[in-house]
Amino acid sequence: MSTTSYYRQGLRQLIAILSTLTFLKIVDPWINFQPVIAQSSTNCQAAQRLAVQRLTNGRDLKVSEVNLSRSQHTDHPSGRHQEYVIQMHGNALESIFNSPQLLKGITIDILNACPQIGRVRYARAGSGEAYSVGLLNDGRIDFFTCAEEEGIYPGHGQGNQPLRWGLEFCSI
What is the pLDDT of residues 47-57, one digit of tens each? Predict the structure, then answer.
């Protein structure tokens, strides 16, 4: 299969998924989905769809953006160079953010099905508030630590160096 036909097939699958999610009112119809590198596994795609369903079913919550991108961390776990970002809004968002078991469970499902993803970032749409759960260097799947807790602040002492894996800025 040529590279072009591989991407066309992936694009067709993506359009079908987004059409279904929009029809079921699981995501906003104006969703911004920007895959950088397509996951080849249908299990991975199913896990990503299920994540959105688990977050939205029975809740006043909308997913406004789903983004698969290359991690800015250079010391990510071997082969896990991608991150999956889910941006959300709605009245149920606080309860989602206050449910570490739910966020960890969804992340575990995605990481088990998607061997190229190292973390899942759950974000409040239109703000800098986000929480990352990912595969840490010690093999656990857990929340990333706030860099500020380690005395690292945006623009102070980091230069253009990316944060080490497992850290993220929380004060943005």
Answer: 999 999 999 99
pTM above 0.90, yes or no: no
* Helix ranges, 57-119 (H): 93-97, 100-113
- The mean pLDDT value of the chain amounts to 79
Contacts of 164 (CB under 8 A, 6+ apart): 73, 75
Closest CA to 47 of 8, 17, 91: 17
* Cβ atoms within 10 Å, residue 9: 12
Contacts 24+ apart (CB under 8 A), 140-144: 141/104, 141/107, 141/108, 141/111, 142/104, 143/100, 143/103, 143/104, 144/119, 144/168
Q: What is the DSSP string of 10-70?
A: HHHHHHHHHHHHHHTTSEEEEEEE--SS----HHHHHHHHHHHHHHHTTSS-EEEEEEEEE
pLDDT digits (tens, 9 = 90+) for 54-85: 999 999 999 988 888 888 878 888 889 899 99
